[in-house]
Automatic annotation (TrEMBL):
PROSITE patterns: FAD_FR, GLOBIN. SUPFAM superfamilies: Ferredoxin reductase-like, C-terminal NADP-linked domain, Globin-like, Riboflavin synthase domain-like. Belongs to the globin family. In the C-terminal section; belongs to the flavoprotein pyridine nucleotide cytochrome reductase family. Keywords: 2Fe-2S, Heme, Iron, Iron-sulfur, Metal-binding, NAD, NADP, Oxygen transport, Transport. Its cofactor is FAD; heme b. Its EC number is 1.14.12.17. It catalyses: 2 nitric oxide + NADPH + 2 O2 = 2 nitrate + NADP(+) + H(+); 2 nitric oxide + NADH + 2 O2 = 2 nitrate + NAD(+) + H(+). It comes from Plantactinospora sonchi. It comes from the Bacteria. This is nitric oxide dioxygenase.
């Protein structure tokens, strides 16, 4: 496994800087081999290319960590049921991926690299199909929007409820969301912003990002009564049920969503653990979701909320980037640490935690974008 992981990571460096070219080769080869597959994908493919490469990179990075490799791929297989992927499609996709890697690297591609990717893809496909086969849930859930609240010009808090059976998930996980009315066949991932509830409702915090197709539709076009599709939950930024350590939670922007869900879950049973939440934003107007956390903290003294603004001189709370702010409150060596937000924020927070000698196994994070 060590030699395989080394060959995969070594060969990936040859294409890491030309991901668009790799994705272009892959989809051209895929649709040429099986034109019927094109109907499974959205008309606008830019975001889909990002999803493909994200999955490849994650698989390559975790292959030398058998437990996480297995867990990630089984979850990915369950998630891909929403695309109506069948077993025969895996062979077609594997051939297209290998051909794309050869095309993108040219003479730098070796027989050893080729065999390593064949072996890795075989393992990836087997685990994904096993995950899909073992899942007794539907490929996706139809959910009705029952609440839509705008918080500022580009953020919305949506509440929805599955129409039939509940969607099982854990606080801290995320799901893929499709807006069939406005953006059919385009799926994007969003963290669930609440712990599981008796009424089975799910809350999402969405920021409209630039010309983001799905996020803009969810913020500006979706209304109460509309239907969404929600896919199987993924992600491991969940509470360790066996840990007694206090918690550090660092959030930026709508990265507050899974942190809020973790706080709600802890509120159901916690008696001994302290939870420190650092919420960062550029200005106070972007600190959109603190009211619910303050209300929770009023009833649970173990919960503390520390907001920070990086470019708002008049803000009476902490000043500076949130990764710098929480460092001043350390050390955090004996805590379970959770980080959620942009890739820039997560990178900064991970550097701070590493400098504080926090054991890597005590750190869990979700990043919006590549690390």
């Amino acid at each position: 496994m060590d030699n395989l992981a080394q060959l995969l990571k070594e060969s990936w460096t040859l294409v890491e800087g030309q991901r668009d070219k790799l994705a272009g080769y892959f989809y051209a080869r895929l649709f040429l081999s099986d034109p019927a597959l094109r109907a499974l994908f959205p008309i606008q493919m830019d975001g889909q290319r990002d999803r493909l490469l994200e999955a490849i990179v994650t698989a390559v990075q975790t292959i030398d960590d058998p437990e996480n490799f297995d867990e990630y791929l089984r979850a990915l297989g369950r998630d891909h049921r929403k695309y109506h992927v069948r077993s025969t499609h895996y062979d077609t996709m594997g051939a297209a991926l290998l051909d794309a890697l050869r095309q993108a690297t040219g003479d730098q591609w070796t027989v050893e690299y080729d065999q390593a990717w064949r072996d890795a893809y075989r393992a990836i496909a087997e685990k994904m199909q096993a995950g899909a086969a073992a899942d007794g849930n539907p490929p996706f859930w139809h959910a009705e929007v029952i609440g839509h609240e705008r918080r500022g010009s580009d953020i919305a808090v949506l509440t929805c409820r599955p129409l039939t059976e509940p969607l099982p998930y854990r606080a801290g996980q995320y799901v893929s969301v499709e807006v069939p009315l406005h953006r059919p066949r385009m799926w994007r991932t969003y963290s669930v912003a609440n712990a599981p509830r008796e009424d089975n409702t799910l809350e999402f915090h969405v920021r409209a990002v630039g010309a983001g197709w799905v996020s803009s539709a969810l913020v500006r076009r979706v209304k109460v009564g509309d239907l969404l599709r929600l896919a199987a939950p993924m992600g491991s930024m969940t509470l360790d049920p066996h840990s007694t350590r206090d918690l550090l939670c660092v959030a930026g922007g709508v990265g507050l969503a899974p942190i809020k869900a973790l706080a709600e879950e802890l509120a159901g049973h916690n008696r001994t653990r302290w939870m420190h939440v650092f919420a960062g934003a550029t200005t106070r107007d972007e600190l959109y979701g603190l009211a619910e956390l303050y209300e929770l903290a009023a009833n649970h003294p173990w919960l503390s909320i520390i907001p920070a603004c990086s470019a708002d001189p008049g803000f009476v709370g902490e000043q500076g980037e949130v990764a710098e702010v929480f460092a001043r409150y350390g050390p955090w060596t004996t805590h379970d640490c959770y980080v959620s937000g942009s890739a820039t924020l997560v990178r900064a927070a991970l550097r701070t935690l590493a400098a504080d000698d926090v054991p890597p196994e005590n750190i869990r994070y979700d990043a919006f974008g590549d690390l």
